[in-house]
Automatic annotation (TrEMBL):
This is Glycosyltransferase. The chain crosses the membrane at residues 21-43. It comes from Brassica oleracea var. oleracea. It is an enzyme of class 2 (transferase). SUPFAM superfamilies: Nucleotide-diphospho-sugar transferases. PANTHER family: GLYCOSYLTRANSFERASE (PTHR47032:SF6), UDP-D-XYLOSE:L-FUCOSE ALPHA-1,3-D-XYLOSYLTRANSFERASE-RELATED (PTHR47032). Its main location: Golgi. It is a single-pass type II membrane protein. One of its GO terms (cellular component) is Golgi membrane. Its EC number is 2.4.2.-.
Length: 346
């Protein structure tokens, strides 16, 4: 009887504790299920912390995974000409900034984004169908934007291969890095019918009427031409230069002691094909390097109104590049994002 009374008197407390435990467990289980239900479907998404950016997923429409360079080039080209850029996912804001400036010159429809990762491919084509293509293999988009890294070298070293493929398809190609801004239309400056057009990367001031020939080599035997902006016609000369550029990059791969990029290889290739390729050096006043535009205030004032493009080089670091564009009024995405074909980025 006493045992029954003790048992009976303890039962309400026991049931109360068990009830609380059961409720807490149930609440925890429901919370876990909600979290999994909300986030698990996005785990393979290209927008979820850049996960799985280098592998195709069922979340990507198959038409973009299977979208070929030939189809993409045919879609964007106008009168046999297209504008190409290569982009890894972290550089999306710079892509959008550059696109605003291109759109202001009415050339955005011929832009082809060569996506170095499935996240970039999906993001561009979801907002601007048909304007992005991925040429396998996809690269590591997390490291590709760090200057001097192997990922950066892997990205930039594929550039001549992409350009050669477009030339073989018969297109005239303007290549741009996306850390550039157009202030005017560059196409009227592509005078004549030369194989290749490019800009000098030196900061020494040239006369306004300077020669358009390949500049003399430096002491190391290499010129200092920028690979940030190149215009190519589908000629034998242009194809020869791209093939030589590819050879130079294969001969000097990235290593801890040689943390290079594609530009030295481009300059070696220019020197080795100098008498076989018809080249044209663009006006320094119209196409200044960042080492002049951002550092030589006197020269910028003297050449005011002549600048066509601005390249944000001679500075290292994603945040540093963005801040410098902001300081010079060239960061357009904050106030003018709707002028881009991609619109505002999420």
């Amino acid at each position: 009887m006493e045992k029954q009374r003790l048992f009976s008197s303890a039962s309400p407390l026991s049931y109360s504790s068990n009830s609380i435990l059961c409720c807490n467990s149930l609440l925890l289980l429901i919370t876990l299920l909600v979290i999994l239900g909300v986030f698990l479907p996005w785990a393979g998404s290209p927008l979820f912390l850049f996960s799985n950016t280098n592998a195709p997923s069922s979340s990507f429409p198959s038409k973009w995974v299977d979208y070929s360079l030939a189809k993409a080039a045919k879609f964007v080209a106008k009168n046999g000409t297209l504008i190409a850029c290569t982009v890894s996912y972290p550089f999306f804001p710079f892509l959008n900034n550059w696109l605003i400036s291109v759109s202001r010159q009415k050339h955005q429809d011929k832009v082809l984004v060569i996506a170095e990762g499935y996240a970039t491919l999906y993001k561009v084509n979801s907002k601007w169908p048909g304007h992005a293509v991925l040429i396998p293999p996809a690269l590591d988009s997390q490291t590709a934007h760090s200057f001097g890294s192997q990922g950066f070298f892997n990205l930039t070293s594929r550039r001549p291969e992409h350009l050669l493929q477009l030339l073989e398809l018969g297109y005239k190609v303007m290549y741009n890095d996306v850390d550039m801004v157009w202030l005017q239309d560059p196409f009227p400056y592509l005078q004549g019918s030369h194989d290749v057009y490019f800009m000098d990367d030196k900061t020494a001031i040239k006369p306004l009427s300077h020669s358009h020939d390949l500049p003399p080599s430096a002491r190391n035997g290499r010129t200092n031409i920028c690979s940030c902006m190149i215009f190519l016609r589908p000629t034998n000369g242009a194809k020869l230069l791209m093939k030589q550029w590819i050879e130079e990059l294969h001969a000097q791969p990235w290593s801890k002691s040689n943390k290079g990029n594609d530009q030295p290889g481009f300059n070696w290739a220019l020197g080795k094909t100098a008498h076989q390729v018809d080249v044209y050096l663009l006006s320094q006043a119209a196409f200044p390097t960042g080492g002049m535009y951002f550092w030589n205030k006197t020269w910028v004032e003297e050449t005011k109104g002549k600048h066509v493009t601005v390249h944000n080089n001679y500075i290292i670091g994603y945040d540093n590049k963005m801040k410098r564009f902001q300081d010079f009024g060239l960061w357009l995405v904050d106030d003018h994002a709707l002028e881009s074909p991609l619109g505002k980025l999420d």
